[in-house]
Amino acid sequence: MLFFSFFKTLTNQTVTIELKNDIRVRGILKSVDQYLNIKLDDVEVLDLAQYPHLSSVKNMFIRGSVVRYVMLPRSEVDVGLLEDATRRGK
Amino acid sequence: MERLSLNDSPANAQQRNSQQFSQQTPLGPGGQNQPTSGPPQLPPQMFTTAAQLLDLTDKKLVLVLRDGRKLIGVLRSWDQFANLFFQDTVERIYAGNLYADVPRGVFLVRGENVLLLGEVDLDREDEIPTTITKAPFEEVFALKKKEDNQRKTGDKKRYKELSALGFEPEHSGEILF
What we know:
Chain A is α+β, with helices and mostly antiparallel strands. Helix content of chain A is about 20%, strand content about 40%. Chain A starts with a helix and ends with a helix. Chain B: One of its GO terms (biological process) is RNA splicing. Chain B: One of its GO terms (cellular component) is ribonucleoprotein complex.
């Protein structure tokens, strides 16, 4: 559950998500659930020309299983805290 | 909104029933779910599949499936696995700089095939990028078939070269466009 909790601490931050089909979307992280499904607001699709079907999308629900990367704002990640939490094994 | 802490009280961590969630629990901070110490937390009910999909119910959505299909319809029902039920669905086929709409009707989609769900901004839905134009279905479909075949041969070649080098191609055994 560590990463579930971790993503919860990042709500309302702008993140960029890369999906397994190479689509990259940037948006405000609104919510995350136990499967790491992600809800994004104010979505901006990078390389939109390739993905015309997403041109009028304002917010998005992304299934956790198709996410390849989540790019986070460096300043918002407390690496020390994360390391501690990992060592505690919870 | 509040900053959350990494340490969740596990007792509150799960709330299954979305009905209960919408009727009884006041959203936002200040509920009885607040832990006694540490930074204030949002209620855990905010962080369930149900809460995420509840906002999208009865809205016009773009559904992208794992096989690359794009369906546009109204989300009527769903469950915790993101199995989805869609009404008045139209499949939009893209190929080259053309697209076509095919009326499909009702869809029940198994969750594992869902890639993403996007809410259509109704003010902007007619702003289709100028680079693509509507064309008859048959024309777009034929072009798409050609493109798919081209991609398939390209993929096959790449996979072959990769596996010769000892690499396992990404998401092999799984269709993902």
